[in-house]
């Protein structure tokens, strides 16, 4: 089988369509470097290990967060809840000069943490691996907090959905 541009383009389109139908929790991944806060929305986040407690986060190398996170070595994965939709929408606005003007942000270990997030997981970067357009960051947990009363903000088919209204709940 030979690689051809049309086949590759079709495969990418099929992949995008398939991934739109995978429900995913929405995360605000943040860091602070040289006195400035950086953050992006992400859905490519996963627990990695319980010993040591760690996460992996996949970030596009062209994202504004990428270089500062690599330089700083500390970051927070803020698990957004339904009540944080305003934060998610503000983070998605390309013209937003400062993503941290919406939401109740505080610094913990020098990193922006969303006080109203469902969960906040502070990490120390222990490894970064480049693959394709992204870097896979592995962070070892240094602190965590969780709110019992939050429902995660979930993204599915290009829109936010409320999984607490799902049948059977």
TrEMBL record:
The protein's UniProt keywords, in alphabetical order, are:
Oxidoreductase
Question: EC top class, in one word?
Answer: oxidoreductase
Known EC number: 1.-.-.-
> Which molecular function GO terms apply here?
oxidoreductase activity
Q: Which domain of life is it from?
A: Bacteria
Keyword Lyase found: no
**InterPro entries reported for this sequence:** Flavin_Rdtase-like_dom (IPR002563), NADH-dep_flavin_reductase (IPR050268), Split_barrel_FMN-bd (IPR012349)
Query: Could you confirm whether the keyword Disulfide bond appears in this record?
Result: no
- Which residue ranges does the record assign to the Flavin reductase like domain? 19-162
Q: Which Pfam families match?
A: Flavin_Reduct
Name this protein carries in UniProt:
Flavin reductase family protein
Protein source organism: Alteraurantiacibacter lauratis
């Amino acid at each position: 089988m030979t690689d051809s541009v049309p086949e590759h383009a079709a495969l990418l389109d099929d992949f995008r369509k398939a991934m739109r139908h995978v429900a995913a929790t929405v995360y605000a991944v943040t860091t602070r470097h040289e006195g400035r806060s950086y953050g992006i929305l992400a859905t490519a986040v996963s627990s990695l290990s319980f010993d040591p407690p760690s996460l992996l986060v996949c970030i596009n190398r062209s994202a504004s967060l990428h270089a500062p996170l690599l330089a700083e070595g500390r970051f927070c994965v803020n698990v957004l809840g339904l009540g944080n939709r305003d934060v998610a929408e503000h983070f998605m606005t390309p013209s937003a000069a400062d993503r941290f003007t919406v939401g109740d942000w505080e610094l913990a270990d020098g990193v922006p943490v969303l006080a109203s997030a469902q969960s906040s997981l502070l990490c120390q970067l222990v490894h970064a691996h480049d693959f394709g357009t992204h870097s896979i960051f592995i962070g070892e947990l240094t602190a965590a907090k969780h709110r019992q009363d939050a429902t995660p903000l979930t993204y599915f088919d290009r829109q936010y959905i409320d999984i607490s209204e799902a049948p059977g709940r």
